[in-house]
Amino acid sequence: MAKAGYDILYPPQEDAINAGVLDGKNLVLASPTASGKTLVAELAVLKSVLQKGGKALYLTPLRALASEKYEDFQKYSEIEKSPGRKVRVAITSGDYDSSDIYLANYDVIISTNEKADSLLRHRSPWIADVTVVVADEIHLITEADRGPTLEVVLTRLLKINPHIQIIALSATIKNAKEIGEWLQAIPITTDWRPVPLREGVYYNGQIQFKDGLSRIIPHADSNPIFDTALDAIREGGQVLIFAETRRLAVEMGKKAGALLRRSLPRPDRRGLENIAQRILSTGERTRLGEVLAEQALNAVAFHHAGLPGSHRKIVEEAFKAGRLKILSATPTLAAGVNLPARTVIISSYERYEAGYGRYPISVLEYKQFCGRAGRPRYDKFGEAILIARTEDEQDYLLKNYALAEPERIWSKLGAEKVLRPHVLATIATRFATTEGGLNSFFAKTFYAFQYDPKMIKGKLGDILAFLHREQMVELEGEELKATRFGRRVSELYIDPVSAVILRDGLYTRAKHVTEVSFLHLISRTPDIAPKLYPRRGEDEMLDLFAKEHQDEYMCEVPEYYGDTNGITFEEFLAEIKCARVLYEWINETSEDGILEVHKVEPGDILRMVDTSRWLLHATYQLAELFGHKDLLNQAYELQVRVAKGVKSELVPLVELEGVGRVRARSLFNAGYRNLDDLKGASVTDLLNVPLIGPSLAKKIKEQVGGLIKAEEWEALKSKDTETSEQSLLTDYKEDDSV
Ligand SMILES: Nc1ncnc2c1ncn2[C@@H]1O[C@H](COP(=O)(O)OP(=O)(O)OP(=O)(O)O)[C@@H](O)[C@H]1O
Ligand SMILES: [Mg+2]
What we know:
alpha/beta, seven-stranded parallel sheet
């Protein structure tokens, strides 16, 4: 407690301790945002590590959260576990094709759910030593695309060590008891919050709160969102506006800034100019960064996953310090970092999904937004406001959100697409060696617990048939075994369907195998993300690109629009669109240029780079497995090029730390084409290259070798250090999508 720096326990923390969490009892703690759930996990982890010599695995859904927890746990790394041996804390995320053996030496391991899944697939030996596992934000089980991973990871950990202690932390949900029964854990549900919350709905100049009170909001703008925000700021609060999309988050920031500019007192401006300056001098200069800096001048900012991690950090710090008054953010912030504000405005209670249309958000999601309202120690209460356009809508929102209870959590493991990779992994890791064993493993999942084990059995049969047909799994008598191909696919952490596409493509070849061949091949797999769809008017341009490269596809190309082929051709163009964005990226089109021409969202390139780099790694590995030696060099080089966004000629240069696509181009244009050229250069030479400052020049010399003269060294030391170029990738490592 003292180490954690708190005087007294919050009530949910007391409840958890009374329930025996420090005596090794399993626990499901469902309690509102910011009610102090982390400390419960921290204390149980310490107890296990210090008193029983145990090992802890802390699971979080997001990379950003993993970093936050890692920092939280640092304060315990000074404690001695045994004489002379301090508690060791590690964080692992990213690379899914590794078993991270070194983690055996650590006591507390923080991981994303996906990374933990991949470690299980690599059969990391230390996992058997884990004594306590924390499943943070376990309500995520209900999310269709990522929930099943967490569910399977927990099922598997329980199978490896049935006595493992499980501590599941969740936002308030309806069926904590049911999850508790599944995990054989004591359920605790609380409504307690550190700062009281007032929930209300705005309509026509007035906020109606759920407790019956109301408040008049003065009219200053045509948009009620900003009226509400300005009112809160006048009262001395800060405002968090949740926007539906990244684009809207940026736009709302812009409008809010214009309104605030008129009312800002002078002394604030200095600090704001500082913040804007920091944004501009960090990372590659992009238009998005400029827009952010402009907004910061008006004490406003936006926050979404398309921002580089460094910019997000600046914004978060400035908001926490109270310098920024309004933050306009996408929903990821609600489930992400701890960034509260007096007033939370939920600008829309609807979401849009392509092919599905508009639908209302869940009460669970709404409550998570609300959870960000109220800063402990600063605010006496927090406010969460929905915006209604009609009186009926106001009634509807009060009834269905403010006064409603959050939904039940449902397992989403039943879909064949999500089940498939987990079935393969279960066989490949020898968790199940017969069909009966497979059935009984999946009978232990939450899905089987909630529905009926029989329901999953039929699906398992279909998937087995597919894996057998595609030679990922073979049957010897009763015994189920993964083939080498199957094992590798499981470890590579890709969908078995993607693996089939890659394998077949590598055999099919193309008349000319070029970079487009590979980029198109990976764009065909279900693992490519995000999926990009051609916009109106874009077909022609894509069709042209497709024709220019017609001899380069590692698959059959569907006919042009016909009655029967219309749909497949449309899909083909979507693949071409992904391939084309990547093609421009590796041919050094600027980020802004790509965004403009292809109308993709700012974060899309980042995600695309990450997923396609991964798929190219898988392509390389499969090419090796199937003996396509002649394709290996090409596939390898392309991996580097996609990771860094450069043409071939820059590959040697971007391998240097601190040198990204922009600075590598600058060095190349100045005549430095490889490491030898750089070795021959003096620091002064390097300083003459545009965009190369003293600290980078020094860093380059340290890496390539070669002499630095003493007087140059002295001169260097006296200069200011500048921030180094950040590639999209290093930023992405701390991004909040996995
Ligand atoms: N006993 C305590 N006394 C004072 N502050 C505390 C106490 N316990 C936790 N806190 C603080 O409360 C804040 C929120 O805690 P925490 O991050 O654990 O919330 P949470 O319940 O996990 O919420 P979320 O749903 O957002 O994950 C943290 O800043 C933490 O430092
Ligand atoms: Mg938490």
